[in-house]
Amino acid sequence: MKLLTPTNWKDYELIDTGGLEKLERFGKYILARPEPQAVWSKSLPETEWEKLANARYTRKKGIDPSKQEFGEKGEWRLKPGMTDQWTISYSYKEMHLKFRLGLTSFGHIGVFPEQAINWDFIYDFLKSKKASDHPPRVLNLFAYTGGASLAARAAGADVVHVDSVKPVVSWAKEKYGDLWIKWNSLGCRRCFEICKAGS
After folding, report:
1. For residues 199 and 188, what is the distance between their CA atoms, to the nearest angstrom?
2. Which long-range contacts (CB under 8 A, 24 or more apart) does 55-59 make?
């Protein structure tokens, strides 16, 4: 088995993991967030994590009866100078992507940096298909905030970006505008119906 890891990040770095957390750098900010797969001990002492992290997310399990919300949410503790939104960049060959990050109540920030290897593959694959008369067409399901959609568009594809979570699609559309990507917050069943009708 070949392990594929992103090698082109300049604005992302995994600094340490362990104790069910990860310490990551996104641009000039360092975040400590939960990571349920990190069941081993941290390499760096906790004092170093506290010193390095500009923000730390802590999870609160349970129900908020006032909002009728279920599941896991939490809160970010920010050091002075830490903002709740910022941008980072990712480049590969002629593909240059920008991501607007934000601290969410569920611990995400708007990008999965480990997916960069997939963006590179999408870009290369679609670039190799571009010689035909028509641009490639990509349907990106469960698209989150759009890394793969942006990579496909950067390669010249017509893209339909679909996620069932409307706020996530709104975030993606706000971040990237039109860019010749059709942004949708359809349910998956509806999306398949549309695709089947169009084929």
Report:
1. 17
2. 55/29, 55/30, 55/31, 55/79, 55/82, 55/103, 56/31, 56/32, 57/31, 57/32, 57/33, 57/103, 57/107, 59/34, 59/107
Question: Going residue by residue through the chain (199 aa), what tens digit of pLDDT does each one get?
Answer: 777 778 899 999 999 999 999 999 999 999 999 999 999 999 999 999 999 999 999 987 664 544 544 456 899 999 999 999 999 999 999 999 999 999 998 899 999 999 999 999 999 999 998 666 788 989 888 888 889 999 999 999 988 888 877 777 777 777 666 655 665 666 556 666 666 665 5
Whole-model pTM: value is 0.83
Is the Cβ–Cβ distance between 79 and 51 less than 8 Å?
A: no
Which tokens sit at 191? 């999306």
Distance CA 17, CA 104 (A): 21
| 139 touches 117 (CB < 8 A) | no
| Surface-to-core class of residue 170, CB atoms within 10 Å of its CB (0-12 exposed, 13-18 middle, 19+ buried) | middle
Contact criterion met (CB below 8 Å) for 14 and 24 = yes
